[in-house]
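Question:
Now give any protein.
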Amino acid sequence: MPTLKWPFRLATLVIFAILANILPAGLHAQPGRLLVKVNQPGPKISPTLYGLMTEEISHSYDGGLYAELIRNRAFKDNTEEPVDWTLVEDGGGAGSIALDQRQPLSMSLQTTLRLTITTPGQRVGVANDGYWGIPVRPNTRYRASLYARGDRSFTGPLTVDIESADGSNVLARAEIPKITSSWAPYSVTLTTGDLAPSETNRFVVSTSSPGTLWLDLVSLFPPTYHDRPNGNRIDIMQKLAGLNPSFLRFPGGNYLEGNSLDERFEWRNTIGPLWMRPGHESPWGYRSSDGLGLLEYLEWCEDLHMQPVLAVFDGYVLNGTYIEPGPRLQPWVQDALDEIEYATGAVTTRWGAVRARDGHPAPFHVNYVEIGNEDYSHEYNGRFAQFFDAIKAKYPHIKLIATSRVTSRVPDVVDDHYYRSAAAMEADVHHYDNSDRHGPKIFVGEWATTEGRPTPTFQAALADAAWMTGLENNSDVVILASYAPLFVNVNPGASQWGTNFIGYDALNSFGSTSYYAQQMFSQNRGDVVLPVDLTVPASPAPAPPAPHGAIGVATWETQAEFRNIKVTHNGQTLYQKDFANGDADWHFNRGAWKLQDGALVQTSDEDGPDATAGDRLDRLHLFAASP
């Protein structure tokens, strides 16, 4: 017997909305009938239908899911100055800070911060405000780490603390007793006491000794999900877990392609220790640290029991540059094969051994690989074929996803994207009803009702729910679907997209209305689609609506008076107003309006004051000069 798991709260809401639009106002609803035909099971519902799509946009990772609290930790966000870092000089202390590339920490991190203490005073140091604040919670342990070296005259000590933004209140403190003249890593634990949660704080590294020291890869981590040392924010991961997601599509999105070839997601530069990761410019106007790299994506899947949907770079970038199929494309095909081997290969393979060296000997299971992202160029057909043949030859079990329609090969799955208004989403719930049941399956890899900022409105959530019913009803064809964008930092200036799924600042996070709509679907998954008949009893026809509309008068840099206004149509008087009887049904916008001697008088010389009656208007578009 097939099982039915119905999202009752949502179903009740949707049915109420339907009835509310069917029944005339003032009439009592007669009993209707909702018939679920459990003896007529339809298509099976894909067990992997609901998942996640992610990319670095609106500070999704840096300043979001990735738990690192220090902004510009490797001093690469600006080549001219140490942005997000400030000099601290207290109690007569004096010094200076500057970027320095003369003795880099590594080939990947070639810019350091030089701190020169000319007069020690009480202290001289550097402060970082984090991503719109350093969040602090009571009785919490924070792990601070940095690379440092001193000149011959400086050996420490260094004080590391979290303090209020004005420096008046120290919330946690530790000391590094000594540093050497060669680059070395240092770490301390900062523990807060019984205090109120706050985010208007800063992180400070300081000293009361003279000399010069250099810093790089300065880091501060709170507790992370599953205690991973380079892990993710607990509260956001818990919200994701609450969705019961089946898969994660990564790393993008436009983030996969980049604005240029040099700014693509280069997976090799995102693995290994952090001092080997140079980071790169993201396509959304800020630099990505790549602290959340390929291995971290895979561990994210592992933590939430999701299938990886790995998108590989296909030779096309956002500025329109592309690599033609053939010999020039072959290195990029091999790069994709190496990336898949890093994820899935045994420790006896070249890249499986690298993964084991990075701390994860067990291979990951990858069943889906997407070739490119939103690649609508005319050359994609050939590039897809070249990737398809190479990947299928080595990994025949992997299902390959085309990011647009192709004819050169038959993909296993095709990726569709939709960003629409609520009305458009609701009108298109039958989009896949007539899809070819014998062709490629469908992955709705990015979709959202784009109403609401920074997160969806309630109307958008209802439209999302309607759209999901269409996906479920066609789940024999639509096997994967993911809302996008997934994340948004809600601080001013942090977002690059209007409508997003989960919002947060430095201290708190929240699920949107659409989050809870999808949660009801995802947590109440059925095995099959069951036909439903909704019968609504006939009701008396409603009376025709009364005429409606608006009438208005206005002036432009002049004064005027208006008397006995009358509107007619085909000999019928639709509206008449004698201002001798008052102006109770009129609305005034700007100007100086008053009743005087039985007339409506406007005495201001400004441009565009208007007065209207009837339906409210945002602005009157017909202007009358003085009569």
